[in-house]
């Protein structure tokens, strides 16, 4: 009996070419990966060991309200600690914290690397917008933070918010989380947006009752505005003040809380 010979299956040519192409690509990819790794190692070695990137200066850019001088912060010791060290090994958070301590009223303190050899510290301080009267006048910013280092500014330059009496708050800036202060500051923003009303001057805002806010113009007229719809009610007030028939020195108050404006005579 004769045996049948098995036929040998030939590998298609396109498959052989595909395997060869895949092997070539894998080899090229391996070379590229090795090149990238070596490049990163050499770059890191250059950045961390080169004298070109050794810290030589710390520069401060502070944005302060007009009339306020920068605190006398002696940061020679800080510079002395980091000077000559690799700039990429400096602790930016520690540097920012150092300046935050010196500027207790700072809203933002950020330390950034400026290549090749400098640290730039950007300091943005809170700006006062009103005065609270407690054991002394406290200036407060638009978010309700009491500013500890601005008390030397003349309180007469800012409107008074009455009905919020802060106790001694210490050296550091603190936020007063009271609803009546929050509403008063929202009202203040709305008033400041009205150029016409600001022509009369804003003397004070009475926030004693959060449900019924009022404010006084510099001429003594009380404006009763309530605790909501400030923009709408101030537009109504502006329209009323523009009335040529109005005799301001005979008015005690103007109430804009209702659809019909109420004018109270003296």
What does this 3D model show about the protein?
There is one protein chain. The protein has 266 residues and is of the alpha/beta class. The chain has 2 domains: 52-125, Ubiquitin-like (UB roll), CATH 3.10.20; 128-265, 3-Layer(aba) Sandwich (Rossmann fold). The protein is built from 6 helices and 13 strands. The chain has helices at residues 13-49, 76-82, 92-102, 179-193, 195-198, 230-241, and strands at residues 57-63, 106-114, 118-125, 128-133, 137-141, 145-147, 160-162, 174-175, 202-206, 213-217, 222-226, 251-255, 262-265. A hairpin with a 6-residue loop joins strand 12 (251-255) and strand 13. It starts with 12 loop residues before the first helix and ends with a strand.
Quick take:
Helix content is about 30%, strand content about 25%. It has about 270 residues and is of the alpha/beta class. The chain folds into two domains: about 50-125, membrane protein fhac (Ubiquitin-like (UB roll), Roll), CATH 3.10.20.310; about 130-265, Rossmann fold.
Any chance you could write out the topology, listing elements then pairs?
Elements: H1 13-49, E1 57-63, H2 76-82, H3 92-102, E2 106-114, E3 118-125, E4 128-133, E5 137-141, E6 145-147, E7 160-162, E8 174-175, H4 179-193, H5 195-198, E9 202-206, E10 213-217, E11 222-226, H6 230-241, E12 251-255, E13 262-265
Parallel strand pairs: 1-3, 4-7, 7-9, 11-12
Antiparallel strand pairs: 2-3, 4-5, 5-6, 6-8, 9-10, 10-11, 12-13
């Amino acid at each position: 009996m004769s045996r049948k010979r098995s036929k040998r299956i030939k590998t298609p040519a396109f498959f052989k070419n595909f395997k060869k192409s895949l092997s070539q690509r894998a080899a090229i990819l391996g070379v590229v990966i090795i090149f990238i790794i070596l490049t990163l190692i050499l770059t890191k070695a250059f950045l961390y060991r080169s004298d070109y990137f050794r810290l030589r200066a710390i520069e401060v850019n502070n944005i302060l309200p007009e009339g306020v001088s920068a605190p006398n912060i002696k940061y020679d010791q800080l510079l002395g600690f980091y000077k000559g060290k690799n700039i990429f090994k400096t602790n930016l958070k520690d540097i920012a914290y150092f300046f935050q301590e010196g500027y207790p009223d700072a809203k933002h303190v950020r330390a950034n690397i400026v290549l090749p050899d400098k640290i730039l510290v950007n300091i943005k301080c809170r700006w006062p917008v009103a005065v609270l009267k407690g054991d002394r006048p406290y200036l407060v910013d638009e978010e309700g933070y009491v500013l500890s280092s601005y008390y030397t500014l003349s309180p007469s330059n800012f409107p008074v918010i009455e009905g919020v009496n802060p106790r001694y708050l210490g050296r550091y800036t603190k936020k007063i989380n009271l609803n009546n202060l929050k509403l008063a500051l929202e009202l203040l923003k709305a008033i400041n947006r009205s150029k016409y009303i600001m022509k009369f001057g804003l003397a004070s805002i009475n926030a004693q009752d959060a449900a019924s806010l009022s404010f006084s113009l510099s001429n003594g007229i009380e404006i009763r505005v309530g605790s909501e719809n400030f923009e709408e009610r101030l537009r109504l007030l502006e329209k009323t003040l523009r009335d040529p028939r109005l005799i301001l020195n005979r008015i005690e108050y103007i109430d804009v809380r209702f659809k019909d404006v109420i004018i109270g005579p003296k």
